[in-house]
């Protein structure tokens, strides 16, 4: 038993020795790993996203929407202990001139300890040529700190031509699965409104037996057809559906050539602007 006790004590002493050694670390090496980088550390700057393609859109009134995005740069290498200022320049190859866009700043600052910076970019759509792609080209000039790749940013912007509505008679086929007319607000409500060049010219829908309609609705509970005429020379048409209270409404809209340009099954008709692409092939010149 005595011999076993000695062996046990020896094992305990050895284990404590191992534990003591494992808690030690090289303080010099630890400091080297956590030291702040200085401005003399090698680094390179490049654009974070050197290419994008944008297609312009229109708001609910048919007006072109400006392109809004951002320009960002990144640091290739360790964070620096001082702020880095990066100048953005308009390249001579750019189709866009300085009055056609706006940058939040042309001097981007990457704060000390960080590796990126960005600024807002707005391109004024109404200044771009219609049905064409224009390029905005920016460059970085950080001397020896400019990365070989990624030093040029190119944003291509395609200005979508306006949708000049096909003039003539549009046909609207309307249904109600429950067979009690359209209930778009409570037990009744408005129908689909058609606005041309800022003026509501018509409203269509199935009459509800629960409410006297304020417009000339179609007095058929389950299904009905109505027509709307968009005048020659109109520049913009907006179709708006008020909503489907009980998920029973369906519709199909055909342009003057008999082409189906919009539809919704019962329960799928969402409130808001109906996307109708019935456009003249040759839009009016601006």
What does this structure look like?
This protein is mainly beta and 286 residues long. It folds into two domains: 44-158, hypothetical protein (bacova_03559) (Immunoglobulin-like); 168-274, Lipoxygenase-1. The protein contains two helices and 17 strands. The protein has a five-stranded mixed β-sheet with strand order 2-9-8-4-6, with no helix packed on it. A four-stranded antiparallel β-sheet has the order 1-3-7-5, with no helix packed on it. A hairpin with a 2-residue loop joins strand 11 and strand 12 (199-204). The radius of gyration is 34 Å and the shape is elongated. The chain starts with a helix and ends in a 12-residue tail after the last strand. Mean pLDDT is 86; it is low at 1-39.
Summary, kept brief:
With 286 residues, the protein is mainly beta. The protein has 2 helices and 17 strands.
User: H/E series, N to C?
Assistant: HHEEEEEEEEEEEEEEEEE
- Name the shape in a single word: elongated
Structural class: mainly beta
Proper CATH architecture of the largest domain: Sandwich
Return the average pLDDT rounded to an integer: 86
Radius of gyration: 34 Å
Strand order of the largest sheet: 2-9-8-4-6
Strand proportion, as a percent range, falls in 35-45%
Characterize the biggest β-sheet. 5 strands, mixed
Relative helix content:
10-25%
Head-to-tail CA distance between termini: 107 Å
């Amino acid at each position: 038993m005595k011999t076993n006790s000695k062996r046990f004590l020896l094992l305990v002493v050895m284990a404590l020795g191992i534990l003591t050694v494992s808690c030690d670390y090289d303080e010099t090496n630890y400091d080297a790993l956590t030291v702040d980088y200085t401005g003399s550390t090698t680094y390179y700057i490049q654009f974070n996203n050197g290419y994008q393609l944008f297609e312009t859109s229109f708001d609910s009134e048919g007006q072109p929407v400006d392109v809004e995005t951002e320009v960002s740069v990144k640091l290739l290498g360790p964070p620096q202990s001082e702020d880095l200022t990066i100048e953005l320049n308009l390249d001579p190859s750019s189709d866009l001139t300085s009055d056609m866009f706006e940058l939040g700043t042309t001097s981007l600052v990457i704060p000390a300890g960080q590796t990126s910076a960005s600024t807002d970019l707005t391109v004024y759509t109404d200044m771009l040529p219609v049905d064409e792609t224009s390029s905005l080209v920016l460059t970085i000039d950080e001397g020896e700190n400019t990365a070989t790749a990624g030093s040029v940013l190119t944003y291509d912007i395609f200005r979508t031509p306006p949708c000049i509505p096909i003039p003539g008679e549009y046909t609207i086929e309307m249904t109600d699965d429950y067979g009690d007319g359209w209930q778009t607000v409570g037990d009744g409500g408005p129908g689909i409104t058609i606005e041309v060049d800022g003026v509501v010219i018509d409203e269509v829908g199935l009459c509800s037996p629960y409410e006297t309609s304020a417009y000339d609705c179609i007095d058929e509970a389950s299904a009905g057809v109505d027509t709307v005429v968009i005048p020659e020379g109109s520049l913009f048409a907006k179709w708006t559906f008020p909503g489907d209270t009980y998920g029973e409404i369906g519709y199909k809209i055909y342009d003057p050539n008999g082409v189906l340009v919009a539809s919704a099954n019962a329960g799928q008709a969402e409130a808001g602007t109906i996307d109708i692409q019935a456009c003249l092939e040759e839009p009016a010149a601006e």
